[in-house]
UniProtKB/TrEMBL annotation:
Cross-referenced InterPro entries: UDP-glycosyltransferase, UDP_glucos_trans
Pfam families: UDPGT
Signal sequence region: 1-22
Identification of the protein by name: UDP-glucuronosyltransferase 2C1
TM stretches of this protein: 483-506
Keywords: Glycosyltransferase, Membrane, Signal, Transferase, Transmembrane, Transmembrane helix
Record family assignment: Belongs to the UDP-glycosyltransferase family.
MF term (GO), any: UDP-glycosyltransferase activity
Length: 530
């Protein structure tokens, strides 16, 4: 009896008393994208629930109001609407798009850092305020200066499989012979032409995009964290990255090697236990056993960002379907008032997709959306708009979990065919449900993984023993150019010496022979004269 009371008390204490090793963690998530924030905040939420004292600073409203962290929203101008419109409806050619995006994003990140509230926060929180910085990555490497400000190790949260910048930060191999880069749109296994394309894309990333980004990051870093004020260089700040969480799991492909401090936490944003849906949505879903179609082009794109004729096509197709359609459209300018469509400004996507009556997801193919759909086993029709979305949707189509529909060439005919194909052919649902089983089968859940690794980094003061030596090497050293140069020098020296000695020997011999011949000739001549 006494024993069980003691046990009860122990169990009670375990829930009430925060762990003795509770750390102060600052999550800094300046990305303007709600889908990015959804992932970073899920990491922060997980850590706060594990008992850490977590403060989050971001530029969008808190998406997890129940999360036990302190949330500070900076009211800073993000990417301009005009920019989003251009990106979706009139995208410039590839070689212009990247510099444009990079310039806008880094400029925005500088504005965020200069925000008076953030500057005030930094003045009030000195070097001992935090034990760990959790940085959401989005073209903001110069924000690593915050780790230098708080003199604490940095953990980075990244929304996708590692790509070139993330790889370079921790010396993760690119292995371009068999790992398709994020933006190539290629799949494993790659044939010769795919490998050629991947090789060229990798060169483009590492030798064009990376240096361009590097220049911008360096400019903003020097401005915000000048070495004259005692800050380390950007290079040194980079060495302070303890670990990177990538929102990827290998069953999604590609299969690739990672360094020990690249930890995959694919699906961290997916709730393990769905929250109850808002009453009206629950009623709609529960009351439609024949199935409901969920339509959302993502959290960044509102209906008003779409071209009017494209919006009309989408409306025309879904308004004629014999199913209810739950459309996350935005706050105004609905394209029509069909009785089977319910427009919402915002929907709890993961909870909606978890409902067994959702039959189809019409999506823009953002990584977060695709993964949620895969997790819950819902087939897709993808209408990608920009960024990594076309690649994600192509992936979905190749895996047999849905159908790709081009936004640029959108017609009623094409969209209707795609929707009907996925609704009527059971193979899409079966494939995505099979995938769902494989995706969930892991040694630890994404949430357990986050908690374990952050505790590990805290226990070992940054755990820099995990760092790959590649982090401290120059690119030419990583390519072994110095070693090859050295070997080549030796080989050339040896060959030159060999050639020189052969030449020298030959010359000496020839010299001897010549002497003899001359004598002979002399003799012959002498004979002739005679
Ligand atoms: C959590 O950390 C913040 C920042 O260091 C600090 O101001 C606050 O007092 C801490 N809260 C608790 C409950 O320890
Ligand atoms: C960063 O932003 C601040 C404030 O907007 C601005 O004064 C500064 O010039 C910017 N830095 C650079 C390098 O552009
Ligand atoms: C939909 O209905 C609202 C009011 O009920 C109306 O203002 C709007 O013009 C209608 N839209 C269309 C496209 O018919
Ligand atoms: C799904 O998995 C089952 C059982 O492993 C298998 O029989 C079936 O062929 C799979 N379906 C598809 C479409 O891959």
């Amino acid at each position: 009896m006494r024993c069980s009371i003691a046990l009860l008390a122990l169990v009670f204490c375990a829930f009430v008393v925060p762990p003795a090793n509770a750390a102060r963690i600052l999550g800094f998530f300046p990305s303007p994208s709600r889908s990015h924030l959804l992932i970073h905040c899920a990491v922060a939420d997980t850590l706060a629930r594990a008992g850490h004292n977590v403060t989050v600073i971001a530029t969008k409203p808190n998406m997890y109001p129940k999360a036990p962290y302190n949330y500070i929203q900076l009211d800073t101008p993000l990417l301009p609407d005009t920019f989003m419109n251009v990106l979706v409806n009139d995208p410039p050619p590839f070689y212009k798009r990247y510099p444009m995006l990079l310039s806008e994003v880094t400029k925005m990140n500088n504005r965020t850092l200069s925000h008076p509230d953030l500057q005030e926060f930094l003045r009030n929180h000195g070097e001992d305020a935090f034990d760990l910085l959790l940085l959401g990555y989005f073209g903001n490497e110069f924000h690593l200066g915050l780790g230098a400000h708080f003199k604490c190790p940095v953990v980075i949260s990244f929304m996708m499989q590692p790509f070139f910048v993330i790889n370079e930060l921790i010396g993760n191999p690119s292995e371009h012979a068999y790992v398709p880069t994020l933006f190539s749109g290629l799949k494993q296994p790659m044939d010769f032409w795919a490998r050629l394309q991947n090789y060229l894309t990798t060169l483009f990333e590492y030798y064009y995009m990376s240096p361009m980004l590097e220049r911008a990051e360096q400019k903003y870093y020097s401005y915000n964290f000048p070495t004259s004020s005692g800050y380390p260089s950007l290079e040194e700040a980079r060495h302070n990255v303890a670990l990177i969480f990538a929102n990827h799991w290998f069953t999604q492909g590609p299969v690739r090697p990672n360094v020990p401090n690249l930890i995959e936490i694919g699906g961290i944003q997916i709730k393990q236990h769905p929250d109850p849906l808002p009453a009206d949505i629950a009623e709609l879903l529960d009351g439609s056993p024949e199935g409901v179609i969920y339509f959302s082009l993502g959290s960044n794109i509102q209906g008003k960002h779409l071209q009017a004729d494209k919006a009309r096509i989408m409306y025309s197709v879904v308004s004629k379907l014999p199913y209810k359609v739950l459309w996350q459209w935005g706050d105004s300018g609905y394209p029509g008032n069909s009785s089977n469509i319910v427009y919402k400004n915002w929907l709890p996507q993961s909870d909606v997709l978890a409902h067994p009556n959702v039959k189809l997801f019409i999506t823009h193919g953002g990584k977060g959306s695709v993964v949620e759909s895969q997790y819950h086993g819902v087939p897709m029709v993808g209408i990608p708009l920009f960024g990594d979305q076309p690649v994600n949707v192509l992936d979905v189509q190749q895996l047999g979990m849905g159908v790709y529909v081009s936004y640029a060439d959108l017609t009623e005919e094409r969209l209707r065919q795609a929707v009907e194909e996925v609704l009527h052919n059971p193979k899409y649902t079966e494939t995505v449900r099979n995938f769902s089983k494989l995706y969930r089968d892991r040694p630890m859940t994404a949430h357990q993984t986050v908690v374990w690794w952050v505790d590990y980094v805290l226990r070992h003061k940054g755990a820099f023993h995990m760092q790959s030596p590649a982090v401290y090497m120059k690119r030419w050293q990583l390519m072994s150019l110095d070693v090859l140069g050295f070997l080549l020098t030796i080989i050339i020296t040896v060959i030159s010496l060999a050639l020189a000695s052969v030449y020298w020997l030959a010359k000496r011999c020839r010299g001897g022979m010549k002497g003899k011949t001359n004598i002979k000739n002399g003799v012959t001549k002498a004979k002739k004269v005679k």
